[in-house]
Design brief:
seven-stranded parallel sheet, Glycosyltransferase, 3 domains, Rossmann fold, six-stranded parallel sheet, 27 helices, alpha/beta
Amino acid sequence: MLERQKIKKIAFIGNYVPRRCGIATFTYDLFNSIKNQYSNTDSIVLAITDKNQVFDYPSEVRFEIIKQDISTYQKAADFLNYNNVDVISLQHEYGIFGGVEGSHILALIRNLRMPIVTTLHTILDEPNPEQKRVLKEIINYSSKVITMTSKGRDFLKEIYKVPEEKIDLIPHGIPDMPFVDPNFYKDRFGVEGKFVLLTFGLISPGKGIEYVLWAMPKIIQKFPNVVYIILGATHPNIIREQGESYRLSLERLAHELGIKKNVIFYNRFVDSDELKEFIGAADIYITPYLNKSQITSGTLSYSFGCGKAVISTPYWHAEELLSDERGIIVPFRDSDAIANAVIELLSNETKRHSLRKKAYMLGREMVWSNIAHLYINSFQQARELSLKKPYTIPQLKTLDDQRMELPEINLKHLNNLTDAIGIFQHSRFSIPRYSEGYCLDDNARALLFTVQLDDLGIADENVYRLSNIYAAFIDYAYDSSKRRFRNFMNFQRQWVEEIGSDDSQGRAVWALGTVVGKSTKKQLQIWATQLFNDAISFIPELTSPRAWAFGLLGINEYLQRMSGDRLVLSIRDELVKKLMNLYYNVATNDWKWFENYLTYDNAKISQALLVSGYQMKNSEVLEVGLETLKWLMNLQLSEKGHFSPIGSDGWYVKGQSKARFDQQPVSTCDAILACSEAHRITGDEYWYNLSKSIFEWFFGKNDLGLQLYDATTGGCYDALQVDRVNLNQGAESTLSFLISLAEIYRIENMIKAYEKVKQVED
């Protein structure tokens, strides 16, 4: 049958062993099950690898895609197209790919010439806009999508509007094990004569293991010969951020509860054969996960399908798999319920073995040999659909349609400007000017930029080092006795003022809120949360509308993670009201603004209302943000159509002439970020195209036709003057370029996702 459909070569894309994660194990098992069942196929693997990681991959891994490097995704597409691959098996989970919500994978699949069958390991019921756009484009490029549960199929149809005929339901594969008495394996682990409870998988706080430990004293009182085995290494991400603190806290808890003789921690990532023996020895398997939003659990599938009696909290996969009395469901975070369920099953051998038998019988459909046939059938259907499609000549793209050719993010000058204290304000050409010291404004911008890189998935150890330096400067700048930040520090590390400007206060809060909302570094988040909460209450006391706007941007980022904070919500309402009152008091038909003049950071005010109106679901606020931004952008477009920001040599007072020079990079950056936000919120391609056009100001699409970005240093010149560029490369200008570049990187992939999704929806 395979030969008839001419599927001769399959490429699997995903994490792969020896990487230690569920996706890697799944891809490995799927690859080998198909290889064993269909020996005539020539299957290869393209493995996703983190930057600076080295894995000793097996020979089937032909190509490594660097998670954070979008160019390797584009090269992978060429590799696949040139190697006569018939079908792609893509494993999808947001966290395994680089870019915003894993959007880098779009750069690969957009350019493939063969059908794609995508296995969805995560399907969210409440995705954010970026998550939804990325997944919908992946689905649109896929001939078939595979989900492992009925609930996943329902989500695909109801939330993502996927036609039913495009969806295949294929359960998670499991090893084929005989239905044997657990006592057969127990002597191998020294637990013969005992009841064995088992939890396995990568260890992390979301697994809820502590609730089983809290249940153990009650269980031991009834069954003193019970032992609880916790099998698995700590999750690599947790190791990087927290070390072994979670595992050690569990061990301490076992000591405190007096159950250390009844608990075994096996801190290893075991191979398949050893895992089978652990599962075989278990009388009861427990998954006490804390989050309902888990559409697939490989550990649950393995234990259930191998004929274990299962006790689980009601996350989605467990609810479905354990229905019809195939297991016991207990409430989340309820150690008493866990204890009662364990005692019930250990006391009732008939019920325990009944659950085992029901699970094992259903599990026969889930063994890898059967799953391989189901996947091949899906691949064949995808192949048939692609062969039926008429051949179309690839459309040539105009320059306007083509992806922007972006420079690499070069941190050479940023490193040059940064010492152990912070980033220097100014430079003479590219040489830091020690005499002018440091300022909070620039260190806040610099911290924001490092979080951007973190959010893009391209941060490395150097970026994290820089973020700690900038965070430390902001921390030191805060004077808790005055509840204010200081701004300027000289080279002798002395503050030259007691309280910084209103704008510096706002920028600091913006940076702190962004760290809370977007950083992946837990310790940095905790620090930022505490300082943000100390500082936020004074923002309404400030008088600068721009400071209010900076504060609002930080607040809205903070609320992405801390949405229930009533104090911060009330401050947001107050600041929005202040800006709206300004607008209604000043704006006229020909002057749609908040003040009777335009100076610096103008677009930040519109951006703050855009984001606030969107998050508050307040259409009036959102409309004012859009209206003022469009007015401001039109005001700053030259007769030739390029961006011409208001110059700092006089600014623009209502009724007077607009200053043409000195044009500042920070004004360009503000405009790009605001237009990008407008695109993210509205989906209107006008804002995306405007962002791209404004970005070209740095490369000579400006009033003088001169480039401001210095590719040799990675810095940016300080201003566009009346007849030349200011050749100094200070922190504000360099950070303005880098922040703009990172934002363009973010939206370049996302716009294509939106276009494709919109086209299908229409």
